[in-house]
Amino acid sequence: MRVVCISAECEPWAKTGGLGDVVDALARAVGARRRADREGDAGTPHVVQSQVWVGTGAIMGVGDGGLADEVEGPVDVFLPKYRGMDAPADATSRSLLVPDPLAESGVTEVTLVEFEARGYRVRLVDHPPAFDRDGYYGDENGDYPDNGWRFGLLCRAALEALMADGRPVDVLHLHDWQAMPAVLLRDCAYEAYPLISRAAVMVTIHNLAYQGWLTRDQAAGLAFPDELKQAMKPRDDGILLLREGIDRAELVNTVSPGYAQEALTPAFGMGLDPALAGIGHRFGGILNGLDMTVWDPATDADLPANYSRSDMTGKVVCRLALLTELGFDPNDTGPVLSMIGRLDPQKGFDLLAGAAPELVAAGARIVVLGTGDPKRIAGMRAIATQHPESVAIVDAFDRALARRIYAGADLYLMPSRFEPCGQGQMIALRYGTPAVVRRTGGLADTVIDVREWPDEGTGFLFDTSSPKSLANACRRAMEHYRRGGEEWAAMQDRGMAIDWSWEAGPAEQYAASYRRAASLRRDS
Ligand code: GLC
Q: With CB atoms counted within 10 Å of each terminal CB, which end of the chain scores lower, N or C?
C-alpha cells in the first residue's frame, strides 16, 4: 500500500507548530513498520483505546487488513520549499510542468527537489513566486490573499509528480486546509486519471480554527473555471477548503478522541460540527504520539544534568540551574510553575496573567516562554516588572531553554481554551513535571487528575476557562507539591512511565485507518 502525505509543515524543514512535529514523526513511524515486524500479529484484532471513531461510538480494531495491505516504506511527504529551506547535498532536482489557472499559458514550471531523510522521502515543491516569502501563510498584513493559488500549486505539483511516477497511490494523507486542494482536484480535475482518482483520501485536522476560506476571486487561483464549476454551486460566494476535505475524504480524523467528540458540538466545531456529524463513523480521533527519543531527560543534551525514573537527582540539578538562569533564588524550595507556547488566544496565557497576582501572593514563581503577539501577555509583563524575583517572561523561540524549563520546573501549565491534542503536557510528564491542564480535547485524554484517581493521577485538571479556576487548580497543585514525599514522587514516576511513542499505538492506528480508507474507496 502506497501512502503519500501532503502538508504545509514538516519538522525539521518547516515548522511553526505541532503540525510539523506530527507529520515528521508519523511519516517516519508509519514507513518504519516493516513486514517482518508485523508477521506475528497480522490479522489479530486488538482494541486500542486512544482511537475512537465517534460516529458510531465504536472503537476500531487494528489488524483488519492482511499483509498485502501493509504500508510500503518510505512514505512520500510533499512540502513547499519556503524561504531559507536547504536541501541536503544528495538531493535531486527536476523540473515539472504543472497546470496553473493563473498562468497565461495554463502551465507553470516548478522544480521538484527530492531526497530521502529520517526514513521517508521528502519532495519539495520549489516555486519562488509562491513560496519564497517572509512567512509560510502570511505576513503582518494577515494571510496572503493568494493562498488558494499557492497551496493549490503545491497540491497540483504533488499530483503531477505522482502521475509522472507512474505508480498508483493507495492513500493520500492530507494535513490541514493547505492540503485540501488535493482532494478537490482528485474529484474535479483528475477524475479521468486512475493513478490519482482511485486514491483514497484521509484528512487529518490538527486545528479546526484554521479552515482555509477562499472568496470566489481567490478560488480562481486554485482551479480552472470548469473545475470550479464542478466544485462550487452558482450561489456559493467562495470555497471553504476544510469543508471540501471533510465532504470528499474517505476518512477524516482529528488528533485526539476527546477533541473529536468536542468537534461535533457547536461550542467547539467552529461551524463545521454539522459537516463532521454528517459523515458519521467516517470521522474519528487518533491521539498523537510523542517522539520518545527526541524527548528524553536521560539523553537530552540541552539539560545541565540528565535523569531518569531510576535516578532523579539530575532533575534537582536542572531545577537549581533554571532558577539561577532566571534570576530567581535557587535556595527557595517553593513551587515553580511554567508555561511554554505560542501567544495565541487558544493557549490561555491571558488566564495565567489573570491568575498570576494571586499565585505570586501564594508563594509561586512563574516562568513563561512564549512567542507571538506580546500584547497578549502585557498584563503578565507588568507583574513580572513588579516581581522580578518571582515572575520571568522570555519572549523568544528558544528550543534549548524550553527543554531546560520542562526539566527544571515543578509544574507545567496548559490552560487552553481548546486543544486538539497538545504536546507540551506529554513532554512535561515525560520530564517528571506534573501538569495542570484544562479538561478539554487532548489534554483531558492525556492527563489524569490525582484527586479523582489517587493511584493513577499524573496532574491536576480544571473545568472552567477562567483565571479563578486556573488559580484554584494551581493552588491545589502547589499544596500537593509542598507536601512532597512519596506521593509526589509516585505521581512524577507515573507520568514518566507513560509510553507515548508513535510505534506503541498511533502509527498502527493510522496504518489501520489507511487500510480502511483504501477499502472504502475501492467500494465506492
Ligand atoms: C495543532 C493543535 C495541537 C496539536 C498539533 C499537532 O497545533 O493546536 O493541539 O497537538 O496541531 O497535531
A: C
Characterise 279 by phi-psi region: left (phi > 0), alpha (psi -120 to 50), beta (else): alpha
Give, for ligand 1, the residue of 19, 286, 419 to mutate: max count of ligand atoms closer than 8 Å to Cβ: 19
Ligand 1 mean position, distance from CA 422 (Å): 5
Q: Do domains 2-289+503-523 and 313-498 have the same CATH topology?
A: yes
2-289+503-523 CATH fold? Rossmann fold (3.40.50)
Confidence tier at 261 by pLDDT (50, 70, 90):
very high
Q: Residue ranges per domain, the chain?
A: 2-289+503-523, 313-498
Name the residue with the closest Cα to ligand 1, atom 12: 206
First to last CA, the chain: 18
Three-state DSSP at 372 gives strand
- The single residue listed with the C-alpha cell 474517505 is 250
CA angle 30, 36, 37 (to 5 degrees): 55
Residue 318 backbone dihedrals phi, psi, to 5 degrees: -60, -40
For residue 17, how far is its CA from the centre of ligand 1 (angstroms)? Answer: 7
Indicate the pairing of strand 336-343 with strand 365-372. parallel
Bond from prior residue into 345 cis (ω within 30 degrees of 0): no
Residues 61, 49 contacting (CB under 8 angstroms) = no
- Measured distance CA(468)–CA(358) in Å, rounded: 9
**CATH class assigned to 313-498:** alpha beta
- For 454-480, what is the mean pLDDT? 98
Task: Return d(Cα 254, Cα 359) in angstroms, integer.
Answer: 34
Q: Distance from the CA of 205 to the center of ligand 1, in angstroms?
A: 9
- How close is the Cα of 53 to the center of ligand 1, in Å? 19
| Substitution site in 7, 255, 416 for ligand 1 pocket (most atoms within 8 Å of beta carbon) | 255
Give the model confidence (pLDDT) of 377-408 as tens digits.
787 888 899 999 999 999 888 999 999 999 99
Contacts 24+ apart (CB under 8 A), 470-475: 470/348, 470/351, 470/352, 470/354, 470/355, 470/413, 470/415, 470/436, 470/438, 471/354, 471/355, 471/358, 471/359, 473/436, 474/337, 474/355, 474/359, 474/364, 474/411, 474/413, 474/436, 475/359, 475/362
Q: How many angstroms is it from 412 CA to the middle of ligand 1?
A: 17
- Ligand 1 pocket (Cβ < 6 Å) reads 17-19, 22, 206-207, 255, 288, 419-423, 442
| Percentage of the chain lying above the pLDDT 90 cut | 84
Query: How do residues 17-59 score in pLDDT, each as one tens digit?
Result: 899 999 999 999 998 875 334 444 433 333 334 555 444 333 3
* Cβ 308 vs Cβ 298: under 8 Å: yes
Q: Record the cell numbers describing residue 391, joined without a space.
A: 515572575
